[in-house]
Each structure stands twice: as structure tokens, then as C-alpha cells.
Amino acid sequence: MNSTQEPPPLEGRTVLVAGASGGIGEGMTLGLLQQGAVVVAAGRDAARLRRVSDYADGCGPGTLHTQVIDVADSDSAAVRRELTERYGLFDGAVISIGNWGPPRRAGILDTTDEVWDEMIADNLTSHFRALRAVTPLIAPNGALVHLSGFSAEIPYPGAALVGATNAAKKSLLRSLTAELDGQGPRTYELVIGPIRTRPRAALGADSPAWLTALELGHHAGRLVAGLGPWADEPLQYLLDRASGVHTTVPL
Ligand SMILES: NC(=O)c1ccc[n+]([C@@H]2O[C@H](COP(=O)([O-])OP(=O)(O)OC[C@H]3O[C@@H](n4cnc5c(N)ncnc54)[C@H](OP(=O)(O)O)[C@@H]3O)[C@@H](O)[C@H]2O)c1
């Protein structure tokens, strides 16, 4: 990607990865380290973060820190205080949180209130709070990268709440972008297809046609650095390796 004469694109930049313990989050962490960033890998559980360290630490010119914190805590001011005291402003942040449980659920008519509440809490309220806590911590010339799934755009029978929360997450990001109105960090909403991750592969869900979490991390890193043909595109669709990057719905 770089000639040997060029410094790594994220050298000297600090990037927060929220949800670093997840399948995509660990790939993001590795990709950003390979691009030279100081990566703050954040998650709610120390043991899960240790697995990220085992996977990614020492793998880049960049430096890894792990941080136990819940970016989706209702006390966003406390989250901000804790992160700022330790790291100051970030040059970039990736929000890669969520909990979809088993891929197929009951149909809408058979979905209980409990399942509804849990899905909304983990896949929508958490994103709202993470955005509220983290966006003000990013330098005005920095970048925020947020992920939603392509089920935002299509019917998703058997997993309607996955689709509904993805559509709502995407909407949140687009409104945030409009509210910032060019005055805050650049924002990127990446609407992604299935991604090759270690946890998904362990469950037998894997395909060479899918982008890997590491490739997604390299893409996010270029966006944080403001490099490449997509740096000015706030909404991007990355469905699989063959279709590349689109800026309108590739239906
Ligand atoms: N994997 C895919 O193919 C795919 C496809 C489309 C979209 N996506 C999107 O990509 C993002 C990450 O996916 P993934 O596959 O990496 O998921 P994952 O492996 O399940 O990891 C998600 C991480 O989010 C954190 N998390 C879960 N619930 C949370 C909450 N309520 N508050 C704060 N953190 C929470 C968990 O970390 P801790 O519990 O350790 O804090 C977990 O490690 C999700 O937003 C998902 O919508 C993924």
C-alpha cells in the first residue's frame, strides 16, 4: 500500500475503536495498527480485550492500548471525561458495537417485547449513546467511522429487528452528519455486507467473496487519514469484494 519511503498513513494519529473485542473490531484494530496508528481498543470486558491484544499487539508500526469502558453507558459525560483524561482528543474513532444474537429470530408477529427491548438496547440505544459520547472527543479535522449492515436497505425476514436497527443506525449517522454541517469531524457511514471475521468463520459462516475485517480496517484507516478516492464520501456501501465501494444503494 505504501512505498517504503512513505511514513505509514496514520503515524502520529490516535484512533479509538469501540467494540474492539468484536470480530470486525479486532480486524479494525489490526488494520489501523498496520497503518501506524496509536489504537485505543475499547470494550466492556478485560478478558475479551486481552484476546484482541493477543491477536493484534506488536503487529504494526502502530501502538496498541486497551481500555475497559462502556461507550454506550448512559452517562456520556463520564465516558468522555475518562477517555479525555487518558488520551486527549482522538484523530479518529470507529464505532463497531452491537449484539445480534443468533442470525435468525422469530418473525415479527412472533417477536416478544423482551426480544424487541434487547435488540433496541444493544443495536440502537447503544449506538446513539456511543455517538453522543465519542463524537465530541474527535478533533475537528479527524474522522468518525460508523458501521451499519445492508439489511438497512432490504427486507430481512426472520431477522426484521436487525434490518430495522440498521436502518435506524444509518439514519442517525446521516442526521449527525447534517447537524455537524462540516464543522466537526468528517463522518463516514459504512453500510456493509457480510464480513469475514474470526468469530463468524468459527461458526462456519465464511466466504472468500466477502471483505475481511482487516480489509475493512485498512479502508477505515484511509478514511481517517483523509486519503484515497472515498475520503469525501460520507455514505458508502461495501457489500463484497467484487462490487467495491458504492456511494448510492447498489440494488
Ligand atoms: N460481521 C458482519 O458480517 C456484519 C455485517 C453487517 C453489519 N455489521 C455491523 O458491524 C458491527 C460489528 O459487528 P461484529 O460482527 O464485529 O459484531 P461482534 O463480533 O458481535 O462484536 C460487537 C462488539 O460490540 C460490543 N457490544 C455489544 N453490545 C454492546 C452494547 N450494548 N454496548 C456497547 N458495546 C456492545 C461487544 O463488545 P464487549 O461486550 O466486549 O464490550 C462486541 O464485542 C455491528 O454494528 C454490526 O451491525 C457486521
UniProtKB/TrEMBL annotation:
InterPro entries: NAD(P)-bd_dom_sf (IPR036291), SDR_fam (IPR002347). The keyword tRNA processing does not apply. Keywords: Oxidoreductase. This is SDR family oxidoreductase. Transmembrane segments: none annotated. It holds the Pfam family adh_short_C2. It comes from the Bacteria. GO terms for molecular function: oxidoreductase activity. Belongs to the short-chain dehydrogenases/reductases (SDR) family. PANTHER family: 5-KETO-D-GLUCONATE 5-REDUCTASE, ALCOHOL DEHYDROGENASE, PUTATIVE (AFU_ORTHOLOGUE AFUA_3G03445)-RELATED.
